[in-house]
Specification:
Layout lengths: L17 H12 L4 H6 L9 H7 L3 H24 L21
Helix pairs in contact: 3-4
């Protein structure tokens, strides 16, 4: 069977389909109430100022902040390279995962 759309002009209507549901759920994923904030580590990306600005619609501010953070990271890396120092992670350490290591 083939279905053909009706001829004629349809009323303009904003979508209320699954896209709106997914958008609402996605926005709720990043919502941080006080209870969640108690358990969130300082490294959680939802706390980044550029992410927060983008989420509330301040696009120019978010982009500028992201650029500032990236330039700061590049400067730190360049400084470490010039002084022949290795990067030392503050929050994580690299180790072998025993669970996924093949025998």
């Amino acid at each position: 069977f083939f279905f053909q759309a009706e001829d004629g002009i349809r009323d303009f209507c904003l979508s209320r389909g699954l896209g709106d549901v997914y958008k609402r759920q996605t926005l709720q994923l990043n919502y941080l109430n006080n209870k969640i904030l108690e358990d969130v580590p300082a490294t959680d990306s939802r706390l980044r100022p550029d992410q927060l600005a983008l989420e509330i619609g301040y696009i120019e501010l978010g982009v500028a902040e992201k650029k500032r953070l990236e330039e700061k990271q590049r400067a730190v890396r360049k400084s470490l390279e010039e002084s022949n120092q290795l990067y030392e992670p503050k929050w994580f350490k690299q180790q072998t995962c025993l669970l996924y290591t093949s025998p």
